[in-house]
Structures are given as C-alpha cells and as structure tokens.
C-alpha cells in the first residue's frame, strides 16, 4: 500500500472562451440495460453529457437489434416452413414440370435456407454490436428478398397453363408460404413486403395470362388478400416495437442513476462480474477505482441539497469523461461514492486516469464562482489478475480499504494496492 497527495497535480488549461460551471440542469439518463448488450451501450455512451437526441437514436437502434434477434432466434421455423412447402410443391408437380428444373430449383432453395438458418442461429447466440445492427439489418433484407425471388421463380417456371388443378395447386403453395411468413417477418419493418412482392406479382401475371375466369378471379383476390395481410403485418410490427421500446426503457431506468445520469450500483455490479469472468479467461489485469467526495456531508448541511445534487452531477461528469475507453465503465455506487472499472490496465495507466479526474476537478474548481469552493476527491484502487479462486467482492473490499486508507491520511489523496486474484 502507498499513499500520495493529489494536490500537486497541475490543472488543465481551460479552452479559450470556455467557462466550466456546475451542471444545474437535469441531465439526460445514460443508456444502461441489464444484459451484456445493454452494458455495452451504457459503457460506450457514458462520455456524452448531452444525450437527449442520442438516447432516442440509440433506443431505436437497440429496438432494431431486438427485432432482428427475434427473427434470428426463430430461423429454424423459417427453414422448416420452406422445406415443407418446397417438398409439397415438388411432390405435387413432379410429373408435369421439367424434372431438371424442379430439382435444380429445389436444391438451390434448400441450400440457401440451410445457410440462412446457420447464420441466423449464430447471430441469435450473441447480442449485436451497435455497429453490426445496420449491416445485419441489410443482410436480413437481402436474404428475405432472395427467398421471395426464389419462390417467384417457381411461379414462373412451374406454372402449368391450361391445367387448372396444377396451377391452383401451385397458387395454393405460394399463398401458403407467404401467409405463413406474416407473423415472423412482421417483426421487421420492411421484411414482409420485400418477401411477398416478388412472389405475388409473377403469380398474378401467370393467372391473368391463363385467361380462365377462375384464374382471373384468383388473380384479383390475391392482391386484396395480401393488402389485408400487410395491414395486419404493420399492426404486429407497431405493437411489438412499442413493447420492445417500453421494455428497454424500463431496463434502462433500472440500471441508471437518475440524478447523475451514469450507471448505478446494480449496473456496476453486473459489469464488474462480467469483466471478472472475462479476466479469468484472458489472464489480464482488472483494476477497480473507488472514490468519494471529501466532506460532502458538510456541503449538504451548510449549503443545502440543491448544491449537493449539483456537485454530484459534476463529479459524475468527471468520471464519465475519464472512462473514455470502450472497455472502461464509470458508475455511482453510493451516496457520494463513485467507481471506475478499468480492465487490462497496469498501475501507471490507473494513475493516469486518477490524475485526469483530479485535473478536471481542479479546472472545474477554478471556474466555479460560488461562495464555496468545489470539494476535493479521495481515491482508492486495487489491481488484480482475476482467477477462479478469487471474487469480485474481494476486489471491491481491497479497493474500498485503499480508499479508507487515503481518507485516513488526509483529504485529496489516493492509495492503491496490487493483489493476486486468488483471494
């Protein structure tokens, strides 16, 4: 253990024309969700103090990712539906259409759907990264369009003119496969019409060209039928989207400290546990920094809780800015206590993070024109290499003990330790 004063840190020079003041307004909540996907969003976006527009955009991005996850999760149903429909089509038309065309089409359809199922199963296992959502969204649409085109080709290649029984059988199969896709494809905003349009148009044209009265009636009824299904599809999408967004908002509020707009204790514990498990696998160091505001109770008692709340918001912004790497995670873990989880960083790197927080604090103190001075901070940290025999609780206890050592040595100090992760 060691203890050094932090007052010697030189303050950053403020940008010309910039005056840092306490953040008195209500900050926008930072995204934070319960699972690994949401932890990444909370971590990636905690360096933005103004987040109203960004939060809405990220909320929609998370909702899109959840829509995709639902579709990928049920890719086996898509595979089985295509296999059963294509097998029925091949069995019913085998004797009346060219067998080499039917065999070739069937082989392509089966291989394509098996590949799509394997890809969907792979994507359903892991949460989508924010940068992957748009790409996977586009790939889903391309795959859906390709599937629709394959069934549209069947409407052209395997339509038997002048044979009402076979033509109506083909129409029945195509109507069945597109109607069966209504519910699942409705979880995507555009997937259902992208799939159905290449199927409906060739089928309708073939029926009209056959010049039978019954064929013409069916050709006219099919667009009306799919118009109604499209309306139903839009309602399913709207309902599911609202349910997903509501769930995401609830999870966000459950893991975000409303006052300071950074992740709360619950989010902190979940993220620390995840990083510990990752450290056990990678054998890389994991550091926990804990800090609290010196004499914070005095500020609350003397100047009121409005001043105390403003100080907490400002200190939260210091930690949010310091946790600038994608792997870092800042949180408020108590009344006036904050923490930063710093994976894969040595002792010198941790010292740089603490110095950056202190420099920002001094710059903020210099630009605060109030009848009171901005409070100082004390820090404690511990660096370990996680192992199966250790625990996150021991890491937290060691960092917390270091903080108390720093407090005992005087205000505005830091203390730290490097320990083994085997308890």
Can you give a write-up of this model?
There is one protein chain. The longest helix has 42 residues, at 213-254. With 423 residues, this protein is α+β, with helices and mostly antiparallel strands. It folds into two domains: 2-27 and 257-418, Reverse transcriptase/Diguanylate cyclase domain (Alpha-Beta Plaits); 62-252. It is built from 14 helices and six strands. The relative contact order is 0.13. The protein has a six-stranded mixed sheet with strand order 1-6-5-2-4-3, with helices on both faces. The chain starts with a strand and ends in a 5-residue tail after the last strand. The protein has helices at residues 36-44, 52-73, 75-93, 99-125, 130-157, 164-180, 182-185, 191-209, 213-254, 265-282, 296-303, 305-322, 347-366, 392-408; strands at 2-5, 286-293, 329-332, 337-343, 377-384, 413-418. Mean pLDDT is 82; it is low at 1-53.
What descriptive keywords fit this protein?
single chain; 423 residues; alpha+beta; Alpha-Beta Plaits; 2 domains; 63% helix; 9% strand; elongated
Provide a short characterization of the protein structure:
The protein has helices spanning 36-44, 52-73, 75-93, 99-125, 130-157, 164-180, 182-185, 191-209, 213-254, 265-282, 296-303, 305-322, 347-366, 392-408, and strands spanning 2-5, 286-293, 329-332, 337-343, 377-384, 413-418. With 423 residues, the protein is an alpha+beta fold. It has 2 domains: 2-27 and 257-418, 2-Layer Sandwich (Alpha-Beta Plaits); 62-252.
């Amino acid at each position: 253990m060691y203890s050094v004063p932090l007052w010697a840190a030189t303050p950053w020079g403020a940008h010309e024309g910039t005056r840092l003041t306490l953040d008195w307004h209500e900050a926008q909540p930072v995204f934070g969700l319960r699972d690994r996907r949401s932890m990444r969003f909370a971590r990636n976006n905690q360096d933005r103090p103004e987040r109203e527009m960004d939060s809405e955009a990220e909320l929609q991005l998370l909702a899109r990712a959840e829509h995709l996850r639902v579709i990928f999760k049920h890719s086996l149903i898509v595979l089985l539906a295509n296999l059963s429909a294509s097998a029925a089509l091949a069995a019913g038309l085998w004797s009346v259409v060219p067998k080499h065309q039917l065999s070739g089409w069937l082989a392509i359809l089966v291989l394509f759907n098996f590949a799509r199922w394997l890809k969907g199963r792979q994507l359903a296992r892991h949460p989508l990264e924010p940068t992957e959502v748009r790409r996977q969204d586009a790939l889903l649409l391309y795959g859906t369009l390709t599937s629709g085109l394959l069934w549209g080709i069947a409407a052209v290649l395997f339509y038997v003119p002048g044979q009402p029984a076979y033509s109506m059988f083909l129409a029945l199969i195509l109507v069945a496969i597109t109607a069966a896709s209504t519910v699942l494809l409705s979880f995507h905003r555009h997937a259902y019409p992208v799939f159905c349009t290449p199927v409906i148009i060739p089928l309708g044209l073939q029926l009209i060209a056959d010049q039978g009265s019954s064929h013409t009636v069916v050709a006219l009824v099919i667009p009306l039928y799919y118009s109604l299904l499209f309306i139903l599809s839009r309602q399913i999408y709207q309902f599911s989207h609202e349910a997903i967004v509501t769930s995401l908002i609830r999870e966000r509020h459950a893991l975000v400290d409303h006052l300071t707009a950074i992740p709360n204790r619950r989010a902190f514990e979940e993220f620390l546990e995840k990083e510990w498990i990752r450290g056990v696998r990678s054998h890389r160091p994991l550091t926990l920094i804990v800090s609290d505001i010196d004499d914070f109770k005095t500020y609350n008692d003397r100047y009121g809780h409005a001043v105390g709340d403003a100080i907490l918001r400002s200190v939260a912004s210091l930690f949010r800015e310091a946790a600038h790497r994608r792997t870092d995670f800042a949180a408020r873990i108590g009344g006036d206590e904050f923490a930063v989880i710093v994976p894969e960083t040595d002792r010198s790197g941790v010292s740089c993070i603490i110095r950056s927080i202190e420099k920002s604090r001094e710059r903020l103190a210099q630009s605060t024109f109030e009848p009171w001075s901005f409070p100082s901070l004390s820090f404690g940290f511990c660096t370990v290499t996680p192992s199966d025999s250790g625990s996150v609780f021991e890491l937290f206890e060691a960092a917390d003990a270091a903080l108390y050592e720093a407090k005992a040595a005087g205000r505005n100090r830091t203390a730290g330790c490097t320990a083994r992760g085997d308890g």
